[in-house]
């Protein structure tokens, strides 16, 4: 007979405070002990059981035997010549690697987190989409990225202000894992990030947007559109064929009305593709009258997609048309372009010889 494989020890970073409380309550410890442990994990940010000196020794012993404290490790790291951006390729327990980007600008630090290894949505211009889907990240693997950068920031007495869920993967395809990580981020006894400072970017997973609206989760929502007609969007974002534009916009309206919150719409501007006056007018019509802000991001060229970013004149013309519909827009800087700081690009560059060129599309 095969021996039963041992039950994997729970990673403490996978548990929001309520779940940690349930675990400890099962061992006979009160919420007081849970909160002491929580503060050690997220305020003092201890990295080993030995450092849990403020806890009862019997509790530390139980934790040592039944849990693990596991963070990702550095696989590769690059610094941008702009001086603001540091890009990390972090290795997870099973050897998968994900990207985390730390941006420091005018004393404000922002981290861009990955929520999946790879992505199933297959956007043609995206390096992660070109890799295909591997697996969801656990909440602890998402939080581990945050703790990795807060350790870096502590060296210079800086603190983290913004979190953007815009790295590798589609956050609403990994709804549970991502939103449990958000619960940990905003917990007032721990990292205590402000809900206004957490942005979740989705390719437009309609059931996820509706669920976010119903559950009132503490995030700012950004929706990646890239095309304002079914044809143009479907060509760039294959996943869009599953959730047609009309359904997506209905879900966005539902979200805005229910949460009374502005939605940001992202648009990667690709020369001669979706930067035309026709697309700008179609986008204006689509968003007219809604509480919307458009972020235009000139395309970050990737190896698997032979198109160019729009030039400054085309960007300005696109924005002018949006303004004629009363729509505010901002051009997002492509910080760290010299270090492949677009989503999935560092991983693609580091692991290029081994990766499969075939995108997986769900
Ligand atoms: N999956 C989510 C979040 C991760 S991608 C989403 O798609 O929204 C974060 C943002 O980067 C998205 O708006 C995406 O369209 C954009 N993006 C990805 N690759 C890009 C590239 N090569 N150039 C410009 N923007 C890109
Ligand atoms: Fe996935 Fe977002 Fe990249 Fe599309 S842009 S493939 S949804 S990570």
TrEMBL record:
Cofactor note: Binds 1 [4Fe-4S] cluster. The cluster is coordinated with 3 cysteines and an exchangeable S-adenosyl-L-methionine.
Catalytic activity, reaction form: adenosine(2503) in 23S rRNA + 2 reduced [2Fe-2S]-[ferredoxin] + 2 S-adenosyl-L-methionine = 2-methyladenosine(2503) in 23S rRNA + 5'-deoxyadenosine + L-methionine + 2 oxidized [2Fe-2S]-[ferredoxin] + S-adenosyl-L-homocysteine; adenosine(37) in tRNA + 2 reduced [2Fe-2S]-[ferredoxin] + 2 S-adenosyl-L-methionine = 2-methyladenosine(37) in tRNA + 5'-deoxyadenosine + L-methionine + 2 oxidized [2Fe-2S]-[ferredoxin] + S-adenosyl-L-homocysteine
Keywords: 4Fe-4S, Cytoplasm, Disulfide bond, Iron, Iron-sulfur, Metal-binding, Methyltransferase, rRNA processing, S-adenosyl-L-methionine, Transferase, tRNA processing
GO terms of molecular function: 4 iron, 4 sulfur cluster binding; metal ion binding; rRNA (adenine(2503)-C2-)-methyltransferase activity; rRNA binding; tRNA (adenine(37)-C2)-methyltransferase activity; tRNA binding
Chief localization: cytoplasm
Residues engaged in binding [4Fe-4S] cluster: 119, 123, 126
Required cofactor(s): [4Fe-4S] cluster
Top-level class of the enzyme under EC nomenclature: transferase
One Gene Ontology biological process: rRNA base methylation
Domain Radical SAM core: residue ranges: 105-338
Location(s) in or outside the cell: Cytoplasm
Cellular component annotations (GO), alphabetically ordered: cytoplasm
Pfam families per record: Radical_SAM
Superkingdom in the source lineage: Bacteria
Annotated residues for binding of S-adenosyl-L-methionine: 169-170, 201, 224-226, 300
Note: Reaction proceeds by a ping-pong mechanism involving intermediate methylation of a conserved cysteine residue.
Protein name, as recorded: Probable dual-specificity RNA methyltransferase RlmN
């Amino acid at each position: 007979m095969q021996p039963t494989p041992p039950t994997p020890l729970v990673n403490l970073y996978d548990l929001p405070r309520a779940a940690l409380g349930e675990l400890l309550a099962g061992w006979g410890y009160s919420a007081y002990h849970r909160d002491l442990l929580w503060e050690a994990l997220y305020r003092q940010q201890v990295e080993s059981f030995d450092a849990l000196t403020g806890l009862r020794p019997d509790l530390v012993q139980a934790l040592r035997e039944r849990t693990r404290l596991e963070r990702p490790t550095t696989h590769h790291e690059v610094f941008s010549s702009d001086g603001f951006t540091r890009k990390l390729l972090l290795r997870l327990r099973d050897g998968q690697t994900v990207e985390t980007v730390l941006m420091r600008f005018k004393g404000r630090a922002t981290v861009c987190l990955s929520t999946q290894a790879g992505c199933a949505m297959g956007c043609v211009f995206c390096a992660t989409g070109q890799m295909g889907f591997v697996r969801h990240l656990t909440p602890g693997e998402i939080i581990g990225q945050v703790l990795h950068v807060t350790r870096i920031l502590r060296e210079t007495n800086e603190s983290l202000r913004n979190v953007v869920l815009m790295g590798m993967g589609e956050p609403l395809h990994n709804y549970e894992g991502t939103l449990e990580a958000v619960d940990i981020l905003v917990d007032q006894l721990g990292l205590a990030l402000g809900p206004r400072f957490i942005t979740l970017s989705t390719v437009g997973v309609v059931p996820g947007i509706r669920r976010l609206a119903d559950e009132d989760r503490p995030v700012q929502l950004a929706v990646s559109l890239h095309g304002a007609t079914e044809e143009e969007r479907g060509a760039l974002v294959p996943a869009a064929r599953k959730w047609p534009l009309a359904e997506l916009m209905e879900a966005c309206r539902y979200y805005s009305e229910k949460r009374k919150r502005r939605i940001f719409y992202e648009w990667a501007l690709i020369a001669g593709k979706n930067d035309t006056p026709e697309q700008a007018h179609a986008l204006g019509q689509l968003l007219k009258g809604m509480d919307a802000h458009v972020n235009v991001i000139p395309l970050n060229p990737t190896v698997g997609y032979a198109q160019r970013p729009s030039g400054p004149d085309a960007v300005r013309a696109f924005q002018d048309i949006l303004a004629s519909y009363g729509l505010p827009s901002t051009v997002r800087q492509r910080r760290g372009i010299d270090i492949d700081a677009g989503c999935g690009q560092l991983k693609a560059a580091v692991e290029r010889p081994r990766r499969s060129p075939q995108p997986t599309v769900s």
